[in-house]
Queue: 2 jobs
Job 1
Amino acid sequence: MNALRLRDDLANIPSYRQGKAAPASQPGNEIFKISSNENPYPPLPSVQHCIAELTSGINRYPDSSGAVLVEALAARYDIESAHIVLGSGSVEIVSQLIRATSGPGDEVLFAWRSFEAYPMLVRAAGAKPVMVPLNAEHGHDLDAMIEAITERTRLIMVCNPNNPTGTTVPLAELQRFLDRVPEHITVLIDEAYQQFNRQDKAPDGVQLFNERSNVTVAHTFSKAYGLAGMRVGYAIAPASLAQAMRAVAIPFGVTTLAQRAAVASLEAEPELQLRVEALVAERDRVSAALTAAGVAFPESQANFIWFPYGEETIRVAELLEERGLLVRPFAGEGFRATIAETAANDRLIEVLSEYAAR
Ligand SMILES: *Cc1c(COP(=O)(O)O)cnc(C)c1O
């Protein structure tokens, strides 16, 4: 019998499941980890150079305010720096937002299935996750989300494009939704995959932030910018909320290396944009090939594709694993596969086409 007194409400919280690590590849039999939506490109030389230069200074604490990065972001988006909050990845930004708005007795509303971290972060704050099922097209059911609002709702999270389904919310629908959300409720637009969205009239979270008093945007350097291992993300939030988020942030949570790598990445945006374009082209190539082979899946506007194989999910994921592709399966629902190196994408097309033709 454990005598330690722990919070009862934490007993059933699942911990975050990381995508399987790829074992070492054998010559001629490369194994690809396409389970975590990572950018397959190595860091830019300029970013690697700036990280290398800084390592001799890591006996010192970082600038806790991240002033240089905050100023660079303020200039990038033409907003005041008071609106910018940094976090150790945008996972920490989501956590700050939840804890700044919600506690025991409060409700945080989001679609499901969506980002796996949401339910556990809400419960870690002692608040209640209210999860509204996606519609039949694997997208947000915004009308059902409006209906799920109660007196206790403090925060609504809209993941756009949605992880893991890759679906998007059209601007007109999102505007109509925001018109109906009471102004005292914060709406987070999680734009971790925004750079990959080629939808006509895609919502721009920063513009919605500028237009409305209760909209907050979360961005990350982990995906399009390829800095997942550095851990840095940010929010653009109304000033009062930004201040509350800083109050619940972990001091010194964003390292000097992460801050500087992010600044270097902002400076290298045109170069990074070419990589994003290449990944979008690969996504479209994979989508077209699989559609032609008779594989059904929702159109993705992110750097991954959702394959709703239902009861066949684990079987197909195992087939892929036998062929060196590690995807992210959700038993009984589907799996998510990241658009990665061309060789990995080719193999995904091959295996799923074979399965469709069996
Ligand atoms: C990957 C991801 C994030 C953030 O990841 P960090 O590495 O913590 O910045 C946030 N939201 C969604 C939906 C994601 O998929």
Job 2
Amino acid sequence: MAAEGITKLMTRPIRAIVDLSALRHNLGIARKHAPHARIMAVIKANGYGHGMLRTAKALETADGFAVLNLGEAIALREAGFRQEILLLEGFFSSDEISLLKQHDLSTVIHAQWQIDALLQTPVSAPIQAWLKINTGMNRLGFQPDDFPAALRNLQQAGAQVTLMTHFSSADEINGITEQLSLFNTLTHDLQLPRSMSNSAATLTFPDALGDWIRPGIMLYGASPMSHINASELGLKPAMTFTSKIIAMRDIQAGETVGYGGTFRAPGTMRIGTVACGYADGYPRHAPTGTPVLVNGQHSRIIGRVSMDMLTVDLSGIPDARIGSSVTLWGKDLPVDEIASAAGTISYELLCAVAARVPLSEAE
Ligand SMILES: *Cc1c(COP(=O)(O)O)cnc(C)c1O
């Protein structure tokens, strides 16, 4: 009852609607590209803003889920997910090791101190360890020279090992060649499962699929590559970010709109105020001209994005009214277009949808 009361009071019309069938469809695209690999669905950052448990449920046929926090991994186990669950940055202190074991969680091992901690923390059954090799990203992982000893120590600690690396430029042409050949040189004669590819590599480098792929962004229907759009990849947007027009006015030539008066009307025009601002997760850096849909018709935002509102050009949309629907991104308006207008990537926009935006789902 209480929850329902709160839901009813979410009267501000902004919503993020998650299309569960799009998530399932995009998982199917990942499978089509990697029919012989298992899929570690990356649902960190609250499922890239789509809701972690909701996303996991929609993607329940995935072979594994990757997150960052122990608490998230345990929440997935407690929600009943039986597949492999991987901590992408591994554990952060040796206190976590017994919980990893208790909940049958897999951990990335990227540094010697983690192996030392494992050696000093006897556990009854083998730990599932994803041993990370730094092949050029220079973020996490063992240097190639240190890798053989790390593997030996980890196996001595009783771990079951999967080998992994992460590409720095899989979204660029020829972006993985050097890293892949280094990884192959280090691992080709080891009879251990291997995992290399994020979304971009899964979609463009069939020789890097390995035993486990690790797709993230493609599952949410955005393109990991600036030179290919999501629909060309067969992906469907999983999130539609919508709101409504809450005010309208006609302005005269020379009048300005919004903070700083950065937009000046070239002539008489009709404008609309939308209940969505940067505190909802819409990028403040989106300039005049960033695309938006009003009643399904293409328009543009004008002036600066404020904390709670933004303004749209209604000149070409005679049927626009107070209450008309506004699509900020999603179905029929790729989030990649908004990201590129704002000088960022879809990942950042999806993750940044604010907690105050009610998230709901549609089949
Ligand atoms: C986030 C992440 C991924 C997923 O990357 P996408 O580009 O979203 O597909 C895969 N592997 C690792 C190690 C990651 O941190």
